[in-house]
Amino acid sequence: MKTRSKLLSAPYTVWMTIFIVLPMVLVAWFAFTDREGHFTLENILSVGQYSNVFLRSIWLGAVATLISLLMGYPLAYIISKMSEKRQSVMVMLVMLPMWMNFLLRTYAWMTLLEDNGLINAALRALGLPGVHMINTAGAVVLGMVYNYIPYMILPLYSVLTKIDKSVIEAAEDLGANSRQVFLKVVVPMSMPGIISGATMVFVPAVSTFIISKMLGGGGNLLIGDLIDMQFLGSAYNPNLGSAISLVLMVIILICMGIMNQFDDEEPGEGGVLL
Amino acid sequence: MKKAGGRIYTFLVFLFLYAPILVLIVFSFNDTETASRTVWSGFSLRWYEKLFEDRLILEALRNTLLIAVLSAAASTVLGTVAAIGINSMKRLPQRIMMNITNFPMVNPEIVTGVSLMLLFVFAVGLFGGRSLGMGSLIAAHITFCLPYVILSVLPKLRQMDPNLYEAAQDLGCPPVKAFFKVVLPEIMPGVVTGMIMAFTLSIDDFVISYFTSGTTQTLPIYIYSMTRKRVSPEINALSTVLFAVVMALLIVINVRQGRAQRAQKEDA
Amino acid sequence: MNNILSLQGIAVSYGKEQVLGGFHLDIRDGEFVTLLGPSGCGKTTVLRTIGGFIQPDAGDVFFYGKNITALPPHKREVNTIFQKYALFPHLNVYDNIAFGMRIKGKSEKEIKKTVHEMLSMVNLSGFAHRGVGQLSGGQQQRVAIARALANEPKVLLLDEPLGALDLKLRKDMQVELKKIQQQTGITFVFVTHDQEEALSMSDTVVVMDGGDIQQIGSPTDIYNEPKNAFVADFIGESNILDGVMLEDYMVRFAGQTFRCLDGGFGKDTPVDVVIRPEDIDVVQADSTHITGEVTNVTFKGVHYEIIVDVEGFKWMIQSTDFRAVGDRIGLSLTPDDIHVMETSAYSGRFGDYSTFSDEMDQDRQAEGGKEDED
């Protein structure tokens, strides 16, 4: 009986082998060959030319992740303290913007941030000088935070609601004031949520190419744009594109490995296993 | 005092989340010839009329829905069956399977997209045929939807009393029938959640579709091309329509859940 | 041949660990049989083999003389009451009980009649349309019984069905289960680690340990004539001493020679001697050969449990008379208090109460109360 039900995952295994494992093998193969299919290290080595793009992507992604955490944590905490009925409404409100297409949401920010956009119009109406916002690194970070902050809030919220009230009462009972309770009990206990939230914001942020294109103009090229250019853009070169993709994956694996260092607990259900 | 602070903070975050959406909606009703995105010149439904006359948009919408329905259905069946298999595995193979399942979720979307593009182009090189189009889109969408289905079904399987399946057999059910009569109703919430996630992810996907669509248009790809060239308030109208549909769906789901909960309470 | 079930040479292993090896058991029609043993002794494995949920690596299962080893569970005329009941949460009480009959394609009219019969048998009339989530543990237990019996099984398998209930409810359910068994005449195979439950309900008790049957017999036989130190220790409280059978009806232990009722061991054979705590009479220290000092006294309601140190060996005595710690008392034994057993692999592993305390007692119970690993 048992052996038979194990076989049920066979179609899935075949599917994932063809559409996940094999494509990754192809990426690696393209990364290490030239256009004629001969082995070469040239692609990987030339990725070094773009180190400024990599550094910018990682920097902007990290800043966006940090802002999302600082902005999202208080909200998740406030929501977790609400009555159960209001909690589910609030969670739905956090998720709702995600149901609107990602491109449209980013496009909406274009209309807000433009030089003659709504924010500047409002500033001018108040007699204040306009601010140049679109096509800056700041706009890119804003777009990242805006698009990915729900991914930060939701895991934080789900960890925070699971914290046993009696643990907090025990800390109070042992003489901790509310600040100490928060810093010594609540924050450490929400670490798994922080880790998974940070991962879920950082990975898409560091590899995006839409946000930088729409809000960053031409001057804020990110890794994603670079890859896009090699496959569907002017610089068509899938071998170099594969090499960049491979390096991007390695960077992300390293970043997640570092983040998981802070999480001494066993990776939980659906968590990231490395 | 503390409570008021919390309220103001919550309000500000939600303002940040909803302001752009609100702007989009408001300007979808803007009556303007110059297609300006920021100057208000009166109420009009002209952009909605234009939207529903736009054959390209309607075609893209049709493609999107078709892909979403097919890939959600396929990934739900394949994923549910796979979850049952994974659940009955021993520790080590289970761990390996879960790592493969988690991989596309943690891998940057753009890398998944690029790698699938390479696969399809490479396959055409080997076997011939058309490379990128509806077929490749559906295969790609099934691929990135599968992990979500598995991860929503697996917890339900783990929560389930393993004796339930045996109890059904014990009472005379052959194995397959026992699955449909007892196991499936038990894990149904997970299956439905997985299917809804698959459906919405598929509708919303841009990055992976972008690399695997070839010349086929889906709604997100069409939106992308609109934002690239002429910027028309048609986009605003389209977003408003999509948003309204999602809102309506969510409200219906919530009302139904609320009713079910109330019915349960009254029963107790 | 009135054996309804016969297990012959059953071997089952999980991975590398062998749980059963060459297991034999015959069960007579209409019997209430209990498989009794500690966690991991293989009792649940036996039950699951009968139910068809485990395919044995070797051996055969016979049902009325017919080999049913390869028959899948849904084709067997046996039904199981699972440990946590395994009621279908998406169905109400009525539909749970009707489940098996609907599979068999019985008419709704007939189903309705049977469901109501079953509900009244388990004292749950009027609960038909409740959701199973709204029932208490005891009520869920009754629904599980009704669901199984509605299927008219020839054999009912019960896997620690009372384990999740509290003490009071457990006692009530014991009586009720026994009554149902007598009413219906169905063969019950009951698995438990609770010796009291086994003794009070069963016609036949099968004591198991390490995948082997240690003893089969009626509850009184098992209690009064334990075959080895394991059975003596597992069933009730026992003082188990090393002894030597000098000749028939003459045994030497605790430095003394006693008359006893056992024979046939041969001359000067080492044996295990069992003395039940309630059989020992407490007397004045100077009127007997065995004397010792009271080291611990616990009030148990009906009696006192007294631990007496007799030259380093701690005896347990149950007495209605109170003795204070530090008292010197004498222990008096009559020949029928003394039960002699052959030595076995278990000799020397049980018997002395020197590490005994109330805490230990609780620990042991908690350990036994854990779910069977198999």
Number of strands of chain C: 20
Order of helices and strands of chain C: EEEHEEEHHHEHEHEEHHEEEEEEEEEEH
Poorly predicted tracts of residues of chain B:
none
Q: How many strand elements of chain B? A: 0
Low-confidence stretches of chain C: 357-374
Mean pLDDT across residues of chain B: 86
Ends of chain C: how far apart? 31 Å
Strand content of chain B: under 5%
Rounded to the nearest angstrom, the distance between the terminal CA atoms of chain B is 40 Å
| Secondary-structure-derived class of chain B | mainly alpha
With helices defined by DSSP (H or I, 4 residues minimum), what is the helix count of chain B?
11
Element order, helices and strands of chain B?
Answer: HHHHHHHHHHH
The radius of gyration over CA of chain B amounts to 23 Å
Structural class of chain C: alpha+beta
> What oligomeric state do these chains adopt?
heterotrimer
Total helix count of chain C?
9
Backbone CA Rg of chain C:
24 Å
Helix content of chain C: 25-40%
